[in-house]
């Protein structure tokens, strides 16, 4: 049998809930993505809680809450302790995303599902990989190789390739084939015939306009509002798709010399942009080339102002402005408060660039037609005063007294347990019967020095006076002094990273006072709330800037990849069923769409065996250079070694003849340039390459494969036999390796 592969969805199938799946390969358990929604509802993590202790490794694909939001909670509360793998941007931006969510929640509630320390602790376990870097799993996962590849969608977004015994399992969700300002398109199409492909149906029913048309509509809507003296609110994520929006606005403002102010408002806005500036190698080719030629960083923003405090926004003079504020769901955060203030003005615009999560305010406002009024709850954290402060302080004093009492009881227990061990021969110990000797030292209340508490040291009950512990110095010495361990004084790189990433540690030293109070717990406070009915008079617009491939592109890509087995996850029931039926007809006969908790076996039908190449066989093999590799024909028969292992041995009869094979991957566009350099008149016509007057070249799929979309293609040369025909055929053969 082939490599054993089982897939069990834990969340995010037949709906748009967060993504989390258990992938078992030969008994090694991967948790691929560990998402949570903006409600932070623990009930949706129940399937994860049941298996979290069995997880051997975690793979993260994108730096947003839908893909990694539950990681701190799972590490703290659910017993998840496995190593985590991601790209560098997913690690950095995911950390900032969780900081922003925590601070936004803590500002308006007594949020206690996880803390800033829990976030730091969870992300300390992350091993960062670069694109196409093969990482070999050791121990229980010996023989498994994982590698991240470009997914598009978000900075650092990953298509995971997991290989065992030559069989590939591909996990590709939320990918984007389109090249954007910020990111290159996915490389998913470069994988051909993997054993298993796990992908999503989220966009299976959606089709998108051209990028140019979409961007123009986006800018037209914004400028129309600004020129009418209105404000524009864009509810955005912390460090994901907002980066593409910032680039669009920054470039357009620079080209057209516009002066309308643009603000990017999150608790970690400054840190986000500072880190993004260092991720140029993860961005599109155009950004990298621009930096090479001009040395200008695309995120050296001149028209976008970074804010981490809403008070700074309120100090801005009145006038039309654009604010990109977190959170995209409008449930909490700066975007929620700004929406309540701006929604009642008909001149303003709220522009959604992604579908709101289910049961959120953003999703409600995106309904068609939108509601005319919505109920919202305004929450605010205020310091305790008056009677409330007095009650709070009394409660804290009571807690301190209880802790002191417990400490005192522990002290008495210590005395009782050590009283029988007293050595009366010790000159420092007093005979309890000799009362007059101790009366002078203890004072009128009989307690004296013995009641003095020295932190970290409890004096014996029979001591005359406080005793201090004596520690023998066991350090080693040489001719130059005490021998020290240099490693005790080395500051580790990860410690520096964590120190620099501490919340509010913006590289410019900015920090919202409210955030500082939350972090330091400097003042006792409470959350006050009141419900409002907001009359929605502003304009509400939704434009798709999610950065995901649309339905038509998904179907085309899946047909090209042509996996042996396909697993569909994450998408509405309608979208999942639609894509499933399409793939059964046009992609592969084995398509699964499991329910939550349903374990499906997608083990390959192929049989794989490990064989040893005998020295006698290899001594007679003639290798030929093939680019960076060497290849050879082998004619052998299967036998067994003395250790009962399968081995390939030389055949006892003369080897049969074999046909010559041309090896290579010809691109017609490159061959066109080659022929032109040889003086051949060549042009594309009807998808074929016309060479000279009568010879035509075209690439066709292998007719023996279903749909001809497996990537195995033939080059067909048509034309009458002539000197020109043989000449072009010779040029064609020169582009391949003869084996």
TrEMBL record:
Entry-linked PANTHER family: CLEAVAGE AND POLYADENYLATION SPECIFICITY FACTOR SUBUNIT 2 (PTHR45922:SF1)
Entry GO CC: mRNA cleavage and polyadenylation specificity factor complex
InterPro entries, per database record: Beta_Casp, CPSF2, Cpsf2_C, CPSF2_MBL, Metallo-B-lactamas, RibonucZ/Hydroxyglut_hydro, RMMBL
GO molecular function: RNA binding
Cell location: Nucleus
Entry protein name: Cleavage and polyadenylation specificity factor subunit 2
A Pfam family annotated for this UniProt entry: CPSF100_C
Transmembrane segments: none
Biological processes annotated in GO: mRNA 3'-end processing by stem-loop binding and cleavage
Classification via CDD domains: CPSF2-like_MBL-fold
Species assigned in the record: Tetracentron sinense (Spur-leaf)
Main location: nucleus
Family affiliation: Belongs to the metallo-beta-lactamase superfamily. RNA-metabolizing metallo-beta-lactamase-like family. CPSF2/YSH1 subfamily.
Residues annotated as domain Beta-Casp: 242-365
Sorted UniProt keywords: mRNA processing, Nucleus, RNA-binding
Lineage of the organism: Eukaryota, Viridiplantae, Streptophyta, Embryophyta, Tracheophyta
Domain of life: Eukaryota
Residue ranges annotated for the Metallo-beta-lactamase domain, each copy included: 17-222
